Structure of YggT family protein:
Amino acid sequence: MGAVSEIAGYLASTLITFYLFIVILRFLLQLARADFYNPISQFIVKATNPPLRPMRRFIPPMGGLDSSSLILALIVQAIGISALLYINYSAVAPAISLLIWSLLGVATAFTKLFFITILVSIVFSWLAPQSRHPALTLLHQVNEPVMAPFRRILPDMGGLDLSPILVFISINVLEIMIRHGAVASGMPAGIIIGLN
């Protein structure tokens, strides 16, 4: 692979990963019933509305879940996989492989996003425990549905919250399963956005 194709692959991967995370955040904001008047929420809504508005005419929500956002995440992941596959290998994926790899990629993006947001929340809880910054409020709202079940499992430890450790262990287990699923599906190395 030459320098130009490596740079193209890096730029494509970076841009697609960024937009994929925004789409997944849009899904999580609705799932967690987060504050949509938060300025960061408003940015996420504005960034995702152009493709989601027409999609919502044909794709209704299912069981209270924003299915349009999930399908958009799969489409973004599929575009990313197709672009990287073409840039790195000058190849095109069969439709069924593309679907499987996209599902694995979106699952990976969810785990990575939770890992990052929980880690940022932990760091800021040490540095600025009383902060009311909109980003921290939003992180708390998005992470709480994942953290709450683990908090219920652990006994009260006098104000020490060890639930993030259990969440990180669970995320690592999921990532190992996803990585093995990717290998079993015949995915070429470095193709799924966020798996590296």
